[in-house]
Structure formats: structure tokens, C-alpha cells
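Q: what sequence does this backbone want?
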């Protein structure tokens, strides 16, 4: 009888499911030069809009608006924010540690105690509310000095700096943090946009993000260094605390063939392999897949590896898989098809889908499809650690913010995750992106909001920074309370 029960399909969220929200330091904290923090690559990126790309200035220019400098001031308001997360019933809160708060220059001999203390206080506050931290070790915020002195992750030296940083935070927080992610959206390095965000590879001169010169050879070399760094961190983390769960984090870009023409189907599979699975194959299975080797050979990309790298990769496999999922696009062999945007990338328009105001196509079924696709490959526990709708919110005269469109988006995606669980996927957590409004990574805007909590700040950086629950705040609270049953 017991055996039969065990084998039954589960059509609801499992007990202990980790409901919560996700953020990143450079988009949330502010306090960019407080508490001994050094500059990061994010601190020299100006604000842009949907139509005006962000710029990288290399040196700070006082006349420009750098949104990371104040962001939404979590640095000073974390107690209030965590209290609100607690009110929603969060079980988990995904945040990143700003590397340059701990090692201001990245290559310092000693860590910055004030930076470490800040996260002591944040974790203590989370503990008070029974919220589990989920820490991204590096989320698009490499110390600027490492970018300038070493050309970012193109240099092998960054592996040691990163591992030293990991060792410091693993030891310091070994009794407070259990869940870690080594690199946010590591697969962004398979795309040009990833050079600066993920790879900390600076342009030669001030440039905007869309016209920066791309160097694929450098990008893949930087990616290799991150693979080695990630694997070393996993091994070290498990030595420091065998209870640690250390995961990978992939921007899962769901891409359908536009038609059933086999050319489109093959192209879609190649895109899935290269953009989505190359990185997770290395991080989950511990070795480069065959299709990556073929791609490098055909493109003349030569990855400089040291003896022992392959063994390091094999010994540093992650414990669980996580990804961001926002939208889907299509792939076609026909070059004349209509293009549409997406998370740091472009794809083709799908005639069956509607898109957000920032032209990201809304596709909840794509989430179910993706989760099955990933789980069928790896069969390890999974979390969706980013998902959500970037939208313009309006504050009504009575002060309310009625974000029904956001509720609708999230509801459909939660339903899709439930279907995936019914399909057999071992999903253990869900942290929708920007649970409190924060700076957009892609455009640097405040106007593109994802939060359950509204922050009074506009694109020019003006506003009181006051917090206010939106309608979705109360909705999500009920979702968590009912463990995903009341949507
Ligand atoms: C992911 C990033 O790519 O997407 C986040 O990990 C980012 O940092 C999120 O904010 C949403 O993208 P955007 O451009 O709307 O902020």
C-alpha cells in the first residue's frame, strides 16, 4: 500500500516548498560607496530606457545618473523590507552579496569587516522572520578594479580572487546560509550582452551596451574561468559545510522552432544546446558536451585550459539546478522573420503569444515545457529563481496600486509549475524576480517594475523611496499561505 502511495503522481506543491522572492545587490542595495564598499562594474553603468541603451563610462561622471548608487536603498532600509517579506510569508529570500563590499578591489589581501557585518545583520533579520537566505555569490557586480586591471574574467587570476571571496563568505556565514548559487545567469557569457554583465570585460572606451565590440574568443575563455571557479567553490563549500546546497543559475531562454520545417527544428535545438545547456552540462554533469567542442572547432575558438581543469570540473558538480524564466521566442532558418526582444537577447515573434510593454513574450506554457526539458536531462532538484512581469504601475488617487496584470502573469506561471510538478519535475522553490521594485538590469530604469512592494522612485532618481504593498502583495501572501492552492 505504502509503495503504491509513494508512486502516485503529485498534483500540488510539495510540503516545505520554498516560496519567496529574488533580488540582486546592485539593483537593490544602493550605498555604493558606504561601509568601505569599492566600485563594481554595475556602478559605472548609466540609466537608460527601453529605447535608449545604458552606457558604461569607465570613470564616474558626476553629471550622470547611475542607478546602482542609490538603487532602492535596501542598504539602509533592509529591516523594513524584510519585515514586509515576512508579512507575505516568504520562506526564502534570494539576494546577492556585493563582492566589492567584501573585497573592495577584488584582489585585496583582507576582507572588509564592515561589509561582512552588513550581511550578518541582513541574515539575522531574515532569521528573525524565519526566512531562509538563498545567496547568489556573483550577480553582475564584479569589482571594477578586477575589470580594469585584469580585463575581467578573461584573466585566469580571477579564479583565485573569486575562490578567496567564496572561502571568506562560506566561513563567515556557514551557520546562517545553506543555499548558494555560484554565478547568476552564467550562460549570458554565450551571448554578446554577457561580456560586461557576466564577464566584467570592459570596452576599450566609453560605450553603450548595444554597440560594444564583441569578442567571442574572449567570452568563452572567460566562461571557462567561471566554470573552474564555480567548480572549485562547490568543492570548497562542501568541505566547509557538508550541509551546503550549491547550485548553478541559468537564464533559460526557451526557443521554439517557428515551423515544423526540420531546418527550424535543428536550429532551435542548436540554440537550446548552446545558450541553455552548454553551461548547465558543465556545471551539473562536470564536463563540456560534444556540441560545445564542435562549436568551438567550427568557430576557431580555442579555450586555454590548464592540466587538472577537467578534473576540477568533474569534482565540482552542483547540487541543484536553478534558472530564470521570463518569456519565449522562436527560431527560424528564414532570415526575414520578425524579431522581438527578451531577457538580454532577441528572438523571433511567436504569432500565438502576446508581449509585455518591453516586448518580452508572455508564455506560461513555455515554463512547463522548459522545466520538463531541463528535468528530463538532469533529474536533480530545481528552483525557478527568477520570473515575473516588468510593467508600469500607476498609483491611484486613493494610493492603491492595482497590478492585476502582474497577478495574472504570476498566476499562470504558478499553474504551469504545478503542471510541471504533476509531470514529475522535482521543483523545490520559486522566487519571483524583483519582489520589491528595483532597478532594471537591462535598461537601468525604475519604471520597469516587478515588485509586490512599490518603491516611490522614478527613472530620474526622484522620489521618497517609501514602500507600499501593491494588490499583488496580498494575493501572493494568500498563495504562500495556501501553498499554491489559492491562486
Ligand atoms: C535577469 C537578471 O536577467 O533578468 C536580473 O538576473 C534582471 O538581474 C532580470 O533584473 C530582469 O531583467 P530586466 O532587464 O527587466 O531588469
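A:
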Amino acid at each position: 500500500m505504502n509503495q503504491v502511495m509513494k508512486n502516485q503522481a503529485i498534483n500540488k506543491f510539495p510540503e516545505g516548498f520554498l516560496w519567496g522572492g529574488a533580488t540582486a545587490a546592485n539593483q537593490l542595495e544602493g550605498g555604493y560607496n558606504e561601509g568601505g564598499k569599492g566600485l563594481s562594474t554595475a556602478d559605472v553603468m548609466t540609466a537608460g530606457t527601453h529605447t535608449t541603451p545604458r552606457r558604461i563610462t569607465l570613470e564616474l561622471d558626476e553629471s550622470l545618473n547611475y542607478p546602482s548608487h542609490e538603487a532602492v536603498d535596501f542598504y539602509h532600509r533592509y529591516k523594513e523590507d524584510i519585515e514586509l517579506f515576512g508579512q507575505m510569508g516568504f520562506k526564502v529570500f534570494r539576494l546577492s552579496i556585493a563582492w566589492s563590499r567584501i573585497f573592495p578591489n577584488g584582489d585585496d589581501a583582507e576582507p572588509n569587516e564592515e561589509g561582512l557585518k552588513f550581511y550578518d545583520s541582513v541574515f539575522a533579520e531574515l532569521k528573525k522572520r524565519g526566512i531562509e537566505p538563498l545567496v547568489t555569490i556573483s550577480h553582475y557586480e564584479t569589482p571594477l578594479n578586477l575589470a580594469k586591471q585584469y580585463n575581467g574574467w578573461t584573466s585566469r587570476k580571477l579564479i583565485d580572487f573569486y575562490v578567496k571571496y567564496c572561502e571568506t563568505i562560506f566561513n563567515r556565514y556557514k551557520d546562517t546560509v545553506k543555499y548558494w548559487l555560484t554565478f547568476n545567469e552564467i550562460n549570458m557569457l554565450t551571448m554578446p550582452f554577457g561580456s560586461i554583465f557576466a564577464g566584467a570585460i570592459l570596452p576599450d572606451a566609453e560605450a553603450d551596451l548595444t554597440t560594444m565590440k564583441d569578442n567571442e574568443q574572449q567570452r568563452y575563455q572567460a566562461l571557462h574561468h567561471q566554470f573552474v571557479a564555480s567548480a572549485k567553490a562547490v568543492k570548497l563549500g562542501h568541505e566547509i559545510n557538508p550541509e551546503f546546497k550549491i547550485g548553478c543559475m541559468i537564464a533559460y531562454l526557451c526557443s521554439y522552432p517557428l515551423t515544423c520545417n526540420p531546418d527550424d527544428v535543428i536550429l532551435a535545438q542548436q540554440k537550446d544546446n548552446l545558450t541553455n545547456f552548454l553551461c548547465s552540462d558543465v556545471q551539473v554533469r562536470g564536463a563540456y558536451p560534444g556540441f560545445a567542442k564542435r562549436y568551438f572547432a567550427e568557430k576557431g575558438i580555442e579555450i586555454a585550459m590548464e592540466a587538472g581543469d577537467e578534473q576540477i570540473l568533474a569534482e565540482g558538480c552542483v547540487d541543484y539546478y536553478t534558472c530564470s524564466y521570463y518569456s519565449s521566442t522562436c527560431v527560424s532558418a528564414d532570415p526575414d522573420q520578425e524579431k522581438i526582444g527578451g531577457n538580454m537577447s532577441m528572438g523571433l515573434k511567436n504569432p500565438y503569444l502576446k508581449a509585455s510593454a518591453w516586448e518580452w513574450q508572455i508564455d506560461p506554457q513555455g515554463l512547463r515545457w522548459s522545466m520538463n526539458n531541463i528535468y528530463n536531462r538532469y533529474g536533480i532538484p530545481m528552483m525557478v529563481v527568477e520570473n515575473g512581469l516588468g510593467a508600469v504601475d500607476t498609483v491611484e488617487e486613493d494610493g492603491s496600486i492595482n497590478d492585476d496584470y502582474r497577478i495574472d502573469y504570476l498566476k499562470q506561471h504558478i499553474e504551469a509549475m504545478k503542471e510541471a510538478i504533476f509531470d514529475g519535475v522535482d521543483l523545490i522553490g520559486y522566487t519571483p524576480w524583483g519582489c520589491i521594485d528595483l532597478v532594471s538590469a537591462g535598461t537601468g530604469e525604475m519604471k520597469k517594475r516587478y515588485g509586490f512592494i512599490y518603491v516611490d522612485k522614478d527613472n530620474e532618481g526622484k522620489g521618497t523611496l517609501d514602500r507600499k504593498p501593491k494588490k499583488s502583495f496580498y494575493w501572493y501572501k494568500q498563495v504562500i499561505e495556501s501553498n499554491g492552492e489559492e491562486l
